[in-house]
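notes to self, project folder thing:

trying the whole complex as one job this time. last attempt i did each chain seperately and stitching them together was a nightmare. two parts in total, labels are on each line so i dont mix them up again. if this works i'll redo the older ones the same way
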Amino acid sequence: MARTMEQIGLINLGLLFLAVLILVGIASSLIATRFGAPLLLVFLIIGMLAGEDGPGGIVFNDYRLTYLIGTVALAVILFDGGLRTRLAVFRGSLLPASLLATVGVVITAALTGAVACLVLGLSWLQGLLLGAVVSSTDAAAVFFLMRAGGLQLRRRVAAALEIESGTNDPFAVFLTIVLVELIMLGAQGSSLDVVILLLRQVVIGTVAGLVGGYLLVQGLNRMALPSGLHPLFAITAALAIYAAAAAVEGSGFLAVYLAGLVLGNRPARAFPSILSFHDAATWLCQILMFLVLGLLVTPSKLLGYLLPAFVIAVFLIVIARPVAVWLCLLPFRFTAREKAFISWVGLRGAVSIFLAAIPTLSGVANAEVYFNVAFVAVFISLLVQGWTLTAVARGLDVALTETAAETQRVEIDLPGQTNLEMVGFPIIEDSPILTRPDLPSWIQPVMVARQEKVLTWADAKALNPGDYAYFLVPTERAQRLDRLFAASDAIHSHHPVAAFNFTGDISLDELAAAYGLSVPDDLRGLTITEAFRLRCEDRIGMGDRIQLGPASLTVHELEDEDVKQASLEIDEVELPVASTSALAEFSLYGRLQRFVAQLAERFNPTKPSAGA
Amino acid sequence: MNLAEIVDSQSVLPSLKVQNKKQLLQEVAHAAGKLTAIDHRVIFETLLQREKLGSTGLGHGIAIPHGKIPTLTRVYGLFARLAAPVEFDAVDNEPVDLVFLLLAPEHAGADHLKALARISRLLRDHDVVAKLRGTDTAEGLYAILTEPAATPHAA
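result (full assembly):
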């Protein structure tokens, strides 16, 4: 009796501890975003602090539990990655991204493995295992850091990175599992076994994912579930698909990613609520995974591996990943700058540490080598690459002119309506919607929530900051509105006041001449529509902006894929323009950007710059 | 920049009667021609060319027709309050009743843009616009236009 009570007490204590840890993690996100520190690193550090060598002093070495948490978390993250991948948008990037996710992983793993053999004195199979463990670009880390940095990349680069990082995890997972099995098999394994193992994993994973995803969509659409249950149904089904595929020795991670992809690209009921639920679920999984991995590691043991791990991490970042990227993207038309950026975004994340726990779990000899080296490598990658991501993007000029802050768009599913949905946006200061006199023609205002009252559009008269506005929009265009409702750096710092509208077919040169503005080199001789197409890579959104010195052109109205109207906004800058750029000159950030730009020039002196 | 630098009390038309956009542009070109001693047909032609690129109607009944005149010596402004609104192909398709004409020399550079920004900021202020609509004397309008900006942009 006393024992049971004691155990319950222990469980409660454990629960309290975990909950507090997560709360601390969430709270510290505020601090982290302010400093621009990679948030995931913060979670890792909190886990380490709570662990045996930190003030927390908790001894946690349950690899089995870690594996369980890691598996569930990874499955959810991958499912979410699939959900958010719009195949139609990424058509042209599928091939390069798939190459990166498969061949790229192998090249990275092989090169890193070779160095690991040298540095750590491992056998080639062991070296390869270490390479495979750290070979995957972490989807969560990539998405997360790009979003946190508010980076808006040229479409092709963003698409390649998103698909690559989304699809290479299952590949790295199963490369790792195959290598572990081979090491366990020892001399008995033949190359035929490897091939069979690989094929089996891929085929079963693919079939399970596609069939499971299809059934999931059917289930969602056919069953009249109570409204709150749709997201739960989806996430549980995802875990079931993972487990089913893994149970018959297929790649569960591949399956769950594909299932997400199917669900994300087919009309399904309650999809917006599923997405928003997954937003939270993915967060929780990230936090949990990093916390647990931080707990699991024994920092004092890391010290012995610091030097070799450092060498391996640097080699991975500076040579292995760039070589893989360059080779894989050779057949495609990517500029050197774009390749350099894609190389730099080869962020390692929780997946690598998680994979590094597998050898320990399977009882491979020297298992702690993998774990500790991978841990240090991930740490370095997050620290160095994570922190510099935005600066490098600017320096290499792969970022679009303006970064898009996230908007808090709420999508409301309309039963019985397939092509229209209701979207709600909070109206915030410095957002373009407040400066434009009218609404885009293809959105229908429905209502405005103001100070706990619901007003009709006519009664609301104008939008004020603090309002919540709801519109009916064609489903596929909802995201193009985001920029209108996001706080804009340009509005905040330049105060555009005058806005004159021009049709999209007007020559930019003519327009600039009329106002004494200068046209960026890459846009000379283009019409307004052409200029936006070039800058936005075909996916032009409302409110997209091209800065022309003291004025900017903003997409005011779209007609299909063309700019119907653009407005020339003239900034009311009382300060001379030079003073702001002079400030940037002295900041570390500005210097870093220029340094990266110079570096890129040196590597690629012949090609003209990709943008202005 | 204070608007007193570009408008004077002579360049305010308190109750201009016009039938349509073309006549409106002709009338303000005519008035500006007298003010600047430049052929009003040159001014009219310049404004017309500019309107062809896109209407200068900003919405909410306000238009800021503008253009560059090579022989001009400085930036000139002229304000007209219409007796009755006219169609102007404005952004919001609403007829226009408040018009601020702005003419700049060929190489005005930043001054041209600054003046445009200044004017449109003034005319985006709902209170100012309401006062302009409720005033029908040149002196009264001029006083409203040249009143120092009460609230600088909060930033």
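what i see at first glance: Chain A touches chain B through 26 residues (CB under 8 Å).
need to look closer tmrw
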